[in-house]
């Protein structure tokens, strides 16, 4: 369904298991950034009522996920560390088109968002299927389903709001680009790292 070029090596979970506090902290900040992204889409596209309504739902869900991760951190006696840079997302951001109309920019922002959700969904699936901690396996299985929903929402809106962009062609470009950079990741105990 996701169409990603490269699957995450399940051995990545061994790295994650070596530092659960780090993956949880990184995950919490990923959820905060996802909520902020949805709010930014609202800010720049306030005239699109259906989009605004759905982005507010996503922002709220992402904040709920942040709270859920924070509860897991507290329950385990761990600490929510400082925000981490997400080099993977920063590399994706560079691929966004900066020219064209406002509608073109919106569509590429939606594809950028869909790409992040797709990879997060895939990583959560790998975690849910391979982590030894049963509580975290269930936690990530539930979040995987939510991320898949966000992925399809972003992709659907990109298709809806395109004016003169071949969204399927542009999505394939996103998939190819992501496939070229993801080889540099999967070596750290972070969601995208």
UniProtKB/TrEMBL annotation:
<dbReference type="InterPro" id="IPR010386">
    <property type="entry name" value="tRNA-Hydrxlase_MiaE"/>
</dbReference>
<dbReference type="InterPro" id="IPR012347">
    <property type="entry name" value="Ferritin-like"/>
</dbReference>
<protein>
    <submittedName>
        <fullName>tRNA-(Ms[2]io[6]A)-hydroxylase</fullName>
    </submittedName>
</protein>
<dbReference type="Pfam" id="PF06175">
    <property type="entry name" value="MiaE"/>
</dbReference>
<dbReference type="InterPro" id="IPR009078">
    <property type="entry name" value="Ferritin-like_SF"/>
</dbReference>
């Amino acid at each position: 369904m996701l169409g990603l070029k490269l699957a995450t090596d399940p051995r990545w979970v061994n790295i994650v298991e070596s530092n659960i506090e780090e993956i949880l902290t990184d995950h919490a900040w990923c959820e905060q950034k996802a909520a902020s992204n949805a709010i930014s889409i609202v800010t720049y596209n306030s005239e699109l009522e259906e989009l605004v309504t759905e982005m507010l739902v996503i922002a709220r869900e992402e904040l709920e996920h942040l709270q859920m991760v924070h509860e897991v951190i507290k329950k385990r006696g761990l600490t929510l560390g400082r925000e981490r840079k997400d080099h993977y997302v920063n590399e994706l951001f560079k691929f966004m088109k900066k020219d064209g109309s406002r509608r073109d920019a919106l569509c590429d922002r939606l594809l950028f968002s869909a790409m992040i959700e797709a990879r997060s969904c895939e990583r959560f699936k790998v975690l849910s299927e391979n982590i030894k901690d049963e509580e975290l396996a269930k936690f990530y299985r539930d979040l995987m389903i939510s991320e898949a929903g966000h992925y399809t929402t972003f992709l659907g809106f990109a298709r809806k709001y395109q004016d003169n962009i071949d969204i399927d062609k542009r999505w394939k470009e996103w998939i190819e680009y992501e496939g070229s950079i993801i080889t540099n990741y999967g070596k750290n105990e972070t969601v995208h790292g």
